[in-house]
Amino acid sequence: MNPTVIDVKPQQDYTLHLWFKNGEEGIFDVKPYLDKGIFMELKDLSLFNSVHPDGLSIEWDNEAALCPDTVYLESVKI
Q1: Bridge pairing between strands 52-53 and 58-59
Q2: pTM for the whole structure
């Protein structure tokens, strides 16, 4: 199992700066998801900025969420 997200900071370019439980940090690009289903609502920056850890991964106030494995494996580690 991949490490969980313990903190997240949204960026103005629709990326997320993530902190993982194992001490790693990464950047996750949400732009490829913004034309799909509930994620289209995240084009509204105020909603995009509502992102928060949910105990395993991340979610937004509209209940959009991403799989913890996707978030970890597809983030660019920094």
Answers
A1: antiparallel
A2: 0.95
Closest CA to 26 of 71, 65, 67: 71
> Domains of the chain, with CATH numbers?
5-77 (3.30.2020.10)
Tell me which long-range contacts 36-44 makes (C-beta under 8 A, separation of at least 24). Answer: 38/62, 38/63, 38/64, 39/64, 42/14
Asked if residues 5 and 71 have their Cβ atoms less than 8 Å apart, the reply is yes
Residues pairing with 59 in the sheet: 52, 65
The answer to whether residue 46 scores a pLDDT higher than 90 is: yes
Q: If pLDDT is split at 50, 70 and 90, which confidence band does 49 have?
A: very high
